[in-house]
Amino acid sequence: MKTAFIHSLSILTLLGISSIFSNLKAQEKIKGIAMELVSSQKIEGVSIKNTRTNKIVQTDQEGNFIIDAQLNDYLAIEAIGYEKDTVFVYDYGVKRVYLNRLNSVIELNEVYIERMTDSRLIAEINATKIAGKYSDVGQQRGGIRLSPSRLFSKEGKRARQNYKLLVEEQHKRAIDRKFTDDLIQSVTPLKNPDLALFKEQYRPTYKFIEQASAEDVKLYIIDAYKKYNTKKGK
Fold this sequence. Notes:
Elements: H1 2-26, E1 28-36, E2 47-50, E3 56-58, E4 64-69, E5 74-78, E6 85-88, E7 95-99, H2 110-115, H3 118-131, E8 135-137, E9 144-146, H4 148-152, H5 154-178, H6 181-187, H7 194-201, H8 206-211, H9 214-232
Parallel strand pairs: 1-7
Antiparallel strand pairs: 1-4, 2-3, 2-5, 5-6, 8-9
Helix pairs in contact: 3-5
């Protein structure tokens, strides 16, 4: 009886230790740098808060910060004179957080769009969608009313062009979050430069990624790797 008790206690102890190491492994140091969206100037004194733990740190003179976080955590970003923003942690790479000055109007281009945080990107998508809209549904008489001024104006055309670029960037990020180097290397022996070539040639579509689970993406990678080897004549 005593032996069984000691055996059970040992198992519980091992489980407890395993749980501690698992938690330690899950908790990582996230490094990042806060910069202004337009000028790329580094910003000192930016408040970075992990919304799960309420842990807060501030950026140093060079805009750098380090904070404890896990995958799927959210970091709330706040600085005087800048719009508040939120960053989603989906990997442990260095985070470059680009902040936009309050009440500033920027001329959108691909460079600025790539720098936007996800929450900023969504906000811009919604804004440009409204700005580029050239028809609406009548509330009183029914039917659809067209607005020639929105349809043919430079502002309307620019908004629709920006909307397309913003949505393309959103789709690109969604693919990058699931079609990762780590996942590919977990099921294939690929290393750079072959890894980069494989990712370029067999990049999945957004339509697939939108519905795919992690297991679906793994199976896709395995199938794509077979095609990759066949193509190379292996």
